[in-house]
Design a protein that fits this description.
This protein is α+β, with helices and mostly antiparallel strands and 180 residues long. The protein folds into two domains: 14-117, Immunoglobulin-like (Sandwich); 132-176, no CATH class. 23% of the residues lie in helices and 29% in strands. It contains four helices and nine strands. The chain has helices at 2-13, 132-142, 150-156, 166-176; strands at residues 20-27, 36-43, 46-54, 57-58, 68-70, 81-87, 90-95, 107-109, 112-117. Strands 1-4-3-2-6-7-9 form a seven-stranded mixed barrel. A hairpin with a 2-residue loop joins strand 3 (46-54) and strand 4. Bound molecules: calcium ion (CA) (2 copies). One calcium ion binds at residues 123, 125, 127, 129-130, 133-134.
Length: 180
């Protein structure tokens, strides 16, 4: 316990940790390569990196190959990395086996498979509409009354700053009222 407290304090003054870097294949739900698009990685609801898809691959294993570089903080250590793929104007959730947790300096192959349409930002209950139900769910997440899934957190963090709070709730209200 004492060790944990000490290391948490040390983290505040240390330089930011090394990013993680991923590369691999991207296939559609049928297992066919995705020809082009973007892979995005999210940490705790916050977009933490992106890489282009080229003929079924993003990045590569070689030292000079580009990678999907995912930057995090000491607090992100061990948190799940959520992948999404944008292709043909659609945003998909992407699954990988086994799931990836963020570790500073980690370089690994992560093969992705498109697995259904990703929730829109603001659609916190993922029913295709943004309305009062999403406002209520976002309020409950912000107040810590419900434990959000990674996807809830992604959808509720509308301003993409890594926190779900009153700023996101106000934005969801405005989207629901058609003001945004
Ligand atoms: Ca909804
Ligand atoms: Ca936010």
């Amino acid at each position: 316990m004492l060790f944990l407290v000490t290391s948490a304090r040390a983290a505040e003054t240390e330089p930011p940790p090394l990013p993680a870097a991923y590369y691999g294949t991207v296939v559609d739900p049928m297992g066919l390569p995705v020809s082009s698009g973007m892979v995005e990685a999210y940490l705790w609801g916050r977009k933490a990196g992106e890489a282009a898809v080229d003929r079924g691959n993003y990045g590569g294993p070689g030292g000079l190959d580009p990678k999907l570089v995912v930057s995090g903080t000491a607090a992100d250590q061990g948190r799940p990395v959520v992948f999404q793929v944008i292709t043909d104007g659609r945003r998909w959730r992407a699954s990988c086996e086994p799931p990836v947790t963020w570790i500073a300096g980690d370089v690994r192959r992560v093969d992705l498979r498109l697995a259904g349409v990703a929730p829109r930002k603001g659609d916190v209950n993922n029913d295709g509409q943004i309305n009062v139900l999403d406002v209520v769910r976002a309020v409950n997440i912000a107040l810590g009354r419900i434990r959000p899934t990674d996807e809830d957190r992604y959808a509720a963090d509308v301003n993409d700053d890594g926190n779900v709070n009153v700023l996101d709730v106000v934005r969801i209200v405005n989207i629901a009222l058609g003001r945004l």
